[in-house]
Amino acid sequence: MFKPLPAFIGLRYAGAQRRSDDSVGLVSFISGLSMIGLILGVALMIVVMSVMNGFDRELRERILGIMPHATIYNATVAVDWPALRDQLAADAEVESAAEVWQVNALARRGSEVTPLLVQGVNPDTIVNVSNINDFLSSNAFPAMLDDSEPGVILGRGIAEKLGVEQGDYLSLIVPNNDAASGSRRAARVAGFKVAEVFHSGTVLDQSLALVSWEQAQGLAGQKGGAGIQLRVNEMLEANWIMRRLLKDLPRDGYYGTDWSRTHGNLYQAIQMSRNLVGLLVLLIIAIAAFNVVSTLVMVVIDKHSDIAILRTMGASTRQILLAFVSQGALVGLVGALVGGVLGVLASLAVTDLVAGLESTLGIQFLKSDVYPVDYLPSELSWADVALVVGAGFLLSLLATLYPAFQASRVQPAAALRNE
Question: Which InterPro entries match (predicted)?
């Protein structure tokens, strides 16, 4: 017999299987169900947290990798934009800057029309603040800058709505809002050739189009929309950095916006979903863990005579209590560890599994016009794994206290009298 004695007794009870005794078989069955529930709860919790981490990563690295952290505009066009760009880029908290001209427009091809955000960019500087170049071929920007046939780079979602491919032609329409000019034209219209269709796998595929700076200036009709896009060192401090930069500029029409205004609702939705789903799955783990209570209560009832004999042989109340805590701790430890291993494996494979299921069934579960990305991302965090496994084991351990306390209160004389 190894020591300590409580651990030996608890492990012996946990592994006891006497087939002739129906009560022991029922106890073993309930104990197994408790362990399976804990395993599934822990594994599911790790997978859910990994998926939420994946969405958070895609927001930061993909969506905000393409879009700027902040943009400073001026209502007038009489600004030396290259000089302003260099001035802002020189700030210690600004990683890079690039000029942009943004125009809200409509794209039309035949009878199909869809709204989009047109950005006029300088290919030499846009790559400093955006990773859009990662989703384009080397010929995309040269084709966009072709003077003979002005090009436009479209997101795949826009191209699918319009039914266009690379090399096709479409029209960009910008309403004329300047009623004071007396212009008879209701809108400015320009024809473009599709230079390339990019697929970032994000919601930007449904709304973003790129043209040259000069073409965007013509679409805007010398109106506002020009600005400087900024990529800052600390994304979460983008709003504060933008406000500080605005204070250093002359107060003649400068204003700005940051990612928290354009995509902040998406970031908050991801965080809220993570918290709510995490809470629900944690409740599942708690239910599975507290099934240990019913298992140990039945063990205590079944082992009344054994407990009484142990007490008469000199076992202390503390030793009896620790014996049943050891039994419940074994169930919790095995369930949490096995669930942790399964959760890690599932988190590493869930993206490929869902992609394979989509390919097999011919169904796309996530679409970028509804969700932030068009695939299921996953990012495993070992800190989350440790937290979930530890929480599962701790809840199981807490669940053992009540039945263990009841076992420690068994009176030897009363228990043996009923045998």
Answer: ABC3_permease_C, Lipoprotein-release_system, LolCE_TM, MacB_PCD
Residue of higher predicted confidence among 1 and 92:
92
* Contact call for residues 172 and 192 (beta carbons, < 8 A): yes
Q: Is the pLDDT of residue 415 over 60?
A: no
Residues 6 or more apart whose CB falls under 8 angstroms from that of 237 comprise 93
User: Domain segments of the chain: what residues?
Assistant: 5-61+266-417, 69-259
CA angle 310, 315, 317 (to 5 degrees): 110
pLDDT at residue 19 in the model: 44
pTM of the predicted protein model: 0.70
Supply 284's token pair.
């599942």
Task: Give the pLDDT band (50/70/90) at residue 305.
Answer: low
Q: What distance in Å separates the CA atoms of residue 37 and residue 40, rounded to the nearest whole number?
A: 5
What is the Cα 305 distance to its own chain's centre? 54
Contact between 181 and 161 (Cβ < 8 Å): no
Could you tell me if 69 and 59 are in contact, meaning their C-beta atoms sit under 8 angstroms apart?
Answer: no
pLDDT in tens, 54-63: 888 887 778 8
Query: In this predicted model, which residue has the larger pLDDT, 412 or 104?
Result: 104
Distance CA 54, CA 348 (A): 11
Are 123 and 145 contacting, i.e. CB atoms less than 8 angstroms apart?
yes
Residue with tokens 């930069």: 245
**Considering just the CA atoms, what is the radius of gyration of the chain in Å?**
32
Q: Is 3 helix (H, G, I), strand (E, B) or coil?
A: coil
Helix, strand or coil for residue 313?
A: coil
DSSP E strands: which ranges in 44-184?
70-74, 94-109, 112-121, 151-155, 169-175
Please name which of 42, 26, 19 lies closest in space to residue 391, comparing C-alpha atoms.
42
